[in-house]
Structure of Glycosyltransferase 2-like domain-containing protein:
Amino acid sequence: MRTIDYYRQINVSILIVDSSSVFLDKELPVNIKYLHLPNSFFGDKIYTALCEVSTPYSCLCADDDFLSESGLYFGIRYLEENKDYASVQGNYVHFEYDNGLVNYHPVYAETIGIKDVSSNNPIDRLMKSIGMKHSFIYALHHTETLQECLKTVLDMKAVSFVEKGISIISPLHGKHIILPIFWMARDKERYSEYFSEKG
């Protein structure tokens, strides 16, 4: 699996949370742990996983995304230096193969550069966050903040409700910023044949 191959190379702790019915029977590197929660709702499985986390910061990542190690370290440093911020993220790119070449395209191009939700008033932060296209779900959060966000969406079946719940609750806990740094690469064609176990 390409995600495991990628994350084995970077110095972060990874927790794979799997709600499929099939257990992943694969030897994992020391920095990656596996939690099998078959048939769990998205928010429920993430909340359960966060209860296993002992680090002060957590970042969610889809299985077709690749977080930047330097982006994560920059985000951690930012949160440590700015205690009034609940979350931080950077810029995203899509990638796809086309005739043997890899093409990259910015995602959320309108947010490239520093964008923040920095009012001291939680309601003002909430109102500003509602107008943003950038979801907070894949931002780096204080672990406790992310747990509180997910408590509000337990038992919700729709993934979009979980995403919205995080984006609504997180700014009530603190400020948010999108920094002009590379944060994550996302496969534009999810589960593409060219990324199969064959190649």
